[in-house]
Amino acid sequence: MRFSPIALALVALPLMSVAVQADERCNDLWFTRNAIIDQAGYCFGSNLGKALFDNSDCQGKSVTLNPEAQQQVAQIQEMEKQAQCRVNSAATTLDLQDLAQRRQLWHFPIWDDYESACIGWLSAPAALRAGHSPEAPVIGQIQVGDTVRYGHMVWGDWSYAMIFDGSWTFKTAGWLNFNEADEACEKFAG
């Protein structure tokens, strides 16, 4: 029995999207875990760690995490184990659309497998902050017509949001406070 190239492509497409999703999740988890220990002063030895985090202010390989950071790192490690993540730490780049914004964050988002999106933001422009705190600096903004993707665990009234234009081209990211933004969408997915 022979299959046409189109039929094979249709069969492979869902498998490829699962692989892309797994890579995105694993890259996201890897970055968040390492960003948390970077804040504690960890000195990275891997090519990837050195490329993404500034070792100029590091304190050593044995750093102390506060209880909240310890819990977050343990949670992320368990998620990485369940997803069977294998991030190539010999590489010098990590494929994350929001890497530039993440480097500005005070608080790091933790991946959530339950995604949703506000497609076509109808509300007034909304500020995106570097952390889940009103004192955190504004690092981006949601504009009318944007698509807002939620794919990380919420923190009280805050959610980490990735912002795309109408054709799903990435624009910016940051923490959105639902008490400050009156979310109205053309469509809601997820």
CATH 4th-level superfamily of the largest domain: SH3 Domains
The general outline is globular
CATH architecture of the largest domain: Roll
* Class derived from helix and strand content: alpha+beta
> Could you spell the SSE succession in H and E letters?
HHHHEEEEEEE
Beta fraction: 15-25%
Main sheet?
5 strands, antiparallel
Q: Indicate the CATH topology of the largest domain.
A: SH3 type barrels
Low-confidence stretches: 1-21
Number of helices: 4
Q: Quick one: how many beta strands?
A: 7
Indicate the percent of residues in helices: 25-40%
Question: What count of structural domains?
Answer: 2
State the end-to-end CA separation: 39 Å
Output the radius of gyration.
18 Å
Report the average pLDDT across residues. Answer: 89
Strand order of the largest sheet: 6-5-4-1-7
* Assigned CATH class of the largest domain: Mainly Beta
Q: Would you write up a description of this structure?
A:
The chain has two domains: 5-82; 99-189, SH3 type barrels. α1 (5-39) packs antiparallel against α3. The chain has 190 residues and is an alpha+beta fold. It starts with a helix and ends with a strand. It contains four helices and seven strands.
Map the helices and strands.
Elements (H helix, E strand, L loop, with lengths): L4 H35 L7 H6 L14 H16 L16 H4 L8 E11 L4 E4 L8 E5 L4 E6 L5 E7 L5 E8 L7 E5 L1
Antiparallel strand pairs: 1-4, 1-7, 2-3, 4-5, 5-6
Helix pairs in contact: 1-3
List keywords for this structure.
190 residues; alpha+beta; SH3 type barrels; five-stranded antiparallel beta sheet; two-stranded antiparallel ribbon; 32% helix; 24% strand
